[in-house]
Amino acid sequence: MSIAADVTLTSIVAFAPREKTRIMLRAAFPRRRCRLLFARSLADFSDAFRKELVDAAVVDITTPHAETWNVAAMAREFPSAPFFGLTPLRGSDGPAVAQCADLDFADVLVEGVDDQCARDIVATRGFSARFSEALRVPPPVLALDLPVQQRAWEYVVAHAGRRVPTLNLAKRLGVTREHLSRTFASQGAPNLKRIIDLVRLLAAAELSKNPGYDIRDVATVLDFASSSHLSSTAQRVVGTKPASLARLRAVDLIQRFCKGHGRSRS
Questions:
Q1: Rounded CA gap, 243 and 231, in Å?
Q2: CA dist., res. 209 & res. 206, Å (int)
Q3: CA diameter of the chain
Q4: C-alpha dihedral over 123, 125, 129, 130, to 10 degrees?
Q5: Residue 264 domain-assigned?
Q6: 53 and 94, same domain (yes or no)
Q7: What is the CB-side half-sphere exposure of residue 101 using CA atoms within 13 A?
Q8: Is residue 3 part of a domain?
């Protein structure tokens, strides 16, 4: 089994004014697999995005009104988190579904039809899943060729930029933290702490491309101590200011990292 297979990180915010919707979503997204955050107002929904990393959003469009569409419009503010409409798909729901398409929703879930597969539809297209899959194999330029390095990399990217305590990682690998640090950085490879920081900055760069986020928001949702902490990490690990992250691709950041930023004090 993959070392990252039991990393449960999927966080979903749902605009669900109806109790029926909340019951359905609790069943579809069990606590042992997902973190489900309910929002009953636009303010609650917006706050959720600024308190933690949201992987995807579900919006109940069954009884659309002004606040529903204000919530739905946030899909364009946070494109890193796919938005999904939820409706019983009655004959009169056509305009609401069309509005979801206009707002760049990823899909529409049909109540009573997609209940059993909703988690797979949503979670597999969420930010963490896409991030982990895109970086599943470490870039060759990082020279992480040893099995222990690759297994550690897989675990780190599965967290999609969230903080990864090295002690937790060592326990998952069945070694001591000291042994893991020494082994990981062998043969001239970057050391583990720098690799963890690099992955966090790759996630920060992707989140910075969201119009709805500023640097302070990105620092908060990725659990940096402050925006200053994010700034100092960006300068130290990839030699750039955080304001530049939004315009840089992952390959650009990795190239910068490889130019003398891969080693740090253990």
A1: 9
A2: 6
A3: 64
A4: -170
A5: no
A6: yes
A7: 6
A8: no
Residue 144 lies in a domain: yes
Cα gap 15→228, rounded to integer Å: 32
Per the CB < 8 A criterion, the answer to whether 41 and 80 are in contact is no
Report residue 201 as tokens: 């900055």
Answer yes or no: do 189 and 120 share one domain: no
pLDDT score for 252:
94
Tokens linked to 173: 């690998």
The mean pLDDT of 11-23, rounded to a whole number, is 93
Q: Does 4 score more than 80 pLDDT?
A: no
Neighbours of 117 (CB within 10 A): 11
Distance CA 75, CA 105 (A): 7
Asked if 246 contacts 201 with a C-beta cutoff of 8 angstroms, the reply is no
Give the residue numbers spanning the domain of 72: 11-128
End-to-end distance of the chain based on CA atoms, in angstroms? 30
Amino acid identity for residue 214 in this structure: D
Determine the average pLDDT of the residues in 214-242.
95
